[in-house]
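Inverse folding, one chain.
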């Protein structure tokens, strides 16, 4: 069976990209990265791709006067490489509805909060300031509205008494790096589909049996 062809879009260091690279290097993993695209030149994520022998392209948004023209260049690069699923992995540019709709149900994103809570930036700071007991991360299909779309996978991470934004980010990153390859695997194996604004799973996808209580009661 042919592997699902991934295009990964980044803006920075690419730690989630690296998690996907590592997964794709496993012989029985059902997906492969065929191109990595960054909107910023010289970032570590591009070097990660090159080191892994993956085509790495910089399409600098500063070179374009119009967002639509910038996104057309990205779309052309993705289609040239016959990408089947776009993975946003720290891509820090808002995408227009036109681009999102061209890749509807074929583009996913990872966000460092339990959506729909804490959309946007500074998610860890805001969660700590609000005194919530759990933070986390979410992988979702992308819609035109910021940090919105059918939710595919989430991880809930407890917030410690002495938590800082940096320490919380570090904890959540470990879950992001486990989740992204797992979510892509579910898609590649045909175990998920989007129905209206929800993700529907096949019967053999296992769900957690118990919830979490924090603080420990």
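Residues assigned per position:
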């Amino acid at each position: 069976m042919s592997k699902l062809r991934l295009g990964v879009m980044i803006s920075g260091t690419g730690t989630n990209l690296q998690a996907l690279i590592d997964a794709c290097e496993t012989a029985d993993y059902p997906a492969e990265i065929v191109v990595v695209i960054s909107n910023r030149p010289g970032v570590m994520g591009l070097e990660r791709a090159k080191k892994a022998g993956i085509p790495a392209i910089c399409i600098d948004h500063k070179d374009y006067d119009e967002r639509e023209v910038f996104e057309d260049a990205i779309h052309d690069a993705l289609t040239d490489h016959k990408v089947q699923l776009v993975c946003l992995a720290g891509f820090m540019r808002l995408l227009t509805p036109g681009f999102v709709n061209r890749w509807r149900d074929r583009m996913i994103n990872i966000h460092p909060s339990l959506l729909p809570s804490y959309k946007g930036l500074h998610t860890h700071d805001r969660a700590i300031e609000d005194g919530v007991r759990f933070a986390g991360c979410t992988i979702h299909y992308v819609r035109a509205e910021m940090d919105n779309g059918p939710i595919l996978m989430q991880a809930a991470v407890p917030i410690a008494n002495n938590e800082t934004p940096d320490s919380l980010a570090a904890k959540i990153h470990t879950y992001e790096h486990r989740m992204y390859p797992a979510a892509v695997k579910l898609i590649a194996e045909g175990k998920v589909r989007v129905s209206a604004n929800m993700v529907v799973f096949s019967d053999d996808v296992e769900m957690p049996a118990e919830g979490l209580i924090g603080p420990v009661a």
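The chain is about 30% helix and 25% strand. The radius of gyration is 17 Å.
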